[in-house]
Each structure stands twice: as C-alpha cells, then as structure tokens.
Amino acid sequence: MRFIFKAVKNTYISIITILALPFALVFLIMGRLAIYAGAYSEVSIIVSKIPFLFGQIVRYYYYKATLQKLGKNVTFKYGSFCQYPSARIGNRVLIGYYNAIGEVEIGDDVVIGGFVNFISGTTQHSFEDQTQTISNQKALGRSMITIGSDIWIGSNAVIASSIGNRCVIGAGSVLVKPAEDQSVYAGNPAKLIKKI
C-alpha cells in the first residue's frame, strides 16, 4: 500500500511540474526583459500569487532560473517573493507565507515563519539634510545580509542584520544588529535571550 501511495504521489508531482514549467518560463522571460529596477520585484510578486502546489513549483523553477543561487528542497509558500535576483538561498529552506526577501544570502536548513521581512541592511535611506524632505534625499544603497544555517525565524520578524549559525529569532522580533552563533534573540529591538 505504501508503495502505491508513493507512486501516485510521485506521478502527481511530476505532472504538476510539467504543467508548471511553461509558466515558470514565461515569468523568467518577463523577469529577464525587465527594463526598470522595480520590474523584477513586480514579476516576482505576480509569481508569488499562484496558489497551491502548482504555485510552489512555478516559484521554485522561476527562482532557480533567476536568482544567483537556489539550492535543493526550497519551498516558497504563497505570497512570498524575492525583490532582487542577487539573493542566494541554500538547501532545505522553507519560506513561509507572505515573506519579502531583499538582498540576502540564506544558508541550509532554515525555517522561516510567515510575514517575515528581510530588508537589505539598516542604512538604506538618508535623512540628514534638514533642508530637504526625507523622500527627496538620496538612497544610500542596499547591503547584503547573511542568514546562517540551522535557523528558525518566527512569524512577523523584521530582519535587517545578519544571523549566525544555529539561531532562533523570536516571532515579532526586529533584528537590527548581528545575531551571534548558537543564540536565541527576541524583542524590538531583538536582544540576546540565551545561548543554545
């Protein structure tokens, strides 16, 4: 019985994969032909809205073709998207629902809850010039943040700084300073709770 179930499951996934490939190809072409900076992000948002297992497969192949790196066994749940093709994601990564992923490198064996926002550093915008509105001041640029391996990030966290290996970031935390290896962080701003 177990053999039959596994065969049916594998057949189902194969059929869904074959059906998803043309969609992934269309979105890949749209992403590659992007003529302005926000186009990649907008195409990624469209891809994020495809539901069910079908959508997860489309997202996997789209990002496999467009990101700098995408490992094996990576799942992007509904609503999650990468803003820039410079993102790098390792193996066995589960990205929960409605995540926004900026310039980030994610290691292996990472579980990310829903509604997590990975912003590209803490100094993206200038606000020093008192003679101009903040919206008219120049952007300072993005910076790559690194998420280590063996990580669990709780829902609704904001990640603006790097995380070492084997860490837990509590739900709702705002991480603005680097998290040390083998640690639990929580709070706003996130603080070291304990070593593990």
Automatic annotation (TrEMBL):
Is Oxidoreductase included in the keywords of this UniProt record?
no
**GO cellular component: a single term:** cytosol
Indicate yes or no for the key word Acetylation: no
Against InterPro entries, the record matches this protein to:
Hexapep, Hexapeptide_acetyltransf, Trimer_LpxA-like_sf
Annotated TM spans = 12-37, 43-62
One GO term in the molecular function aspect is: O-acyltransferase activity
- What are the protein's UniProt keywords? Acyltransferase, Membrane, Transferase, Transmembrane, Transmembrane helix
Q: Which Pfam families match?
A: Hexapep_2
Record's family? Answer: Belongs to the transferase hexapeptide repeat family.
Name of the featured protein: Acyltransferase
Query: To which species is this protein native?
Result: Pedobacter polaris
